[in-house]
Amino acid sequence: MRGGTEVLGKVEVRLKWDPSPLGEAPRHLDIIAATYSADDPHGRPAYVVHYASRSPDGTINMTRHSRTGMGFGFVEVMVLEFDRLSPVFGRVVVGVAIHQDGGPRMFGDISRAGVVVVQGYEQLLADDFTQVADSTAATVAEFVRDASGAWVMRDMIRGFDSDPVLFTAEMGSRQH
Q1: Which of 13, 131, 160, 172 is the most buried (most CB within 10 A)?
Q2: Residue 15 in contact with residue 67, Cβ under 8 Å?
Q3: What pLDDT is attached to residue 83?
Q4: How far apart are CA 80 and CA 64, in angstroms?
């Protein structure tokens, strides 16, 4: 702890949702992380991590991925190792996007969706996307370096109306 704020090391973002009803196209959600340089924390992401990628240095990666949900708890997990992340990065934004194949879907259409952010056994954030029910993507948390260089987390539940590709470009912006 540093001044009442949890200093972050290795953090997991976990995502769950129920599969689509019988006869409907699969519901596919993805955790996405965008890293920003310390020099331009609200500019263009230095790199983006999602189900088909990992950070160049291996500090952010997907350890579990689902294309359908399963209804068996948290089926998608991203690990962020802030204690190893290069000092050139000053901000990381994590969000969730819904793939739009099979017709438009919003969080309100996804049964029992939820996300948690944990460090060890401590839950730092939990959300069920209710406040962004009319959105197709949402940021979840923002991780920033404090004045001492330690990483801290801020809740950042904000809804977006975009597909996963567009979401990666706009999720860290100040304008939304």
Answers
A1: 13
A2: no
A3: 94
A4: 13
Q: How many residues does the chain have?
A: 176
Give the per-residue pLDDT at 10: 96
pLDDT along the chain (176 residues), means of 10: 65 91 82 95 93 87 69 83 95 94 88 95 96 97 94 95 89 77
CA angle 35, 76, 138 (to 5 degrees): 55
Listing DSSP states for the chain in one string gives -BTTBPPPSEEEEEEE-PPPPTTSPPP-EEEEEEEEETT-TTSS-SEEE-TT-B-TTSSEEEEE--SS--SSS--EEEEEETTTS-TTEEEEEEEEEE--TTS---GGGSTT-EEEEEETTEEEEEE-SGGGTT-SEEEEEEEEE-TTS-EEEEEEEEEE-S-HHHHHHHTT-S--
- What contacts 24+ positions apart, CB below 8 Å, involve 45-49? 45/168, 45/169, 45/172, 46/88, 46/89, 48/168, 49/78
For the whole model, what pTM was predicted?
A: 0.91
What's the angle, vertex CA 132, arms to CA 45 and CA 120, rounded to 5? 65
**Sign of the Cα pseudo-torsion (16, 86, 176, 53, in order):** negative
Token pair in block for residue 88: 């050139």
For residues 25 and 46, give the distance between their C-alpha atoms in angstroms, rounded to a whole number. Answer: 33
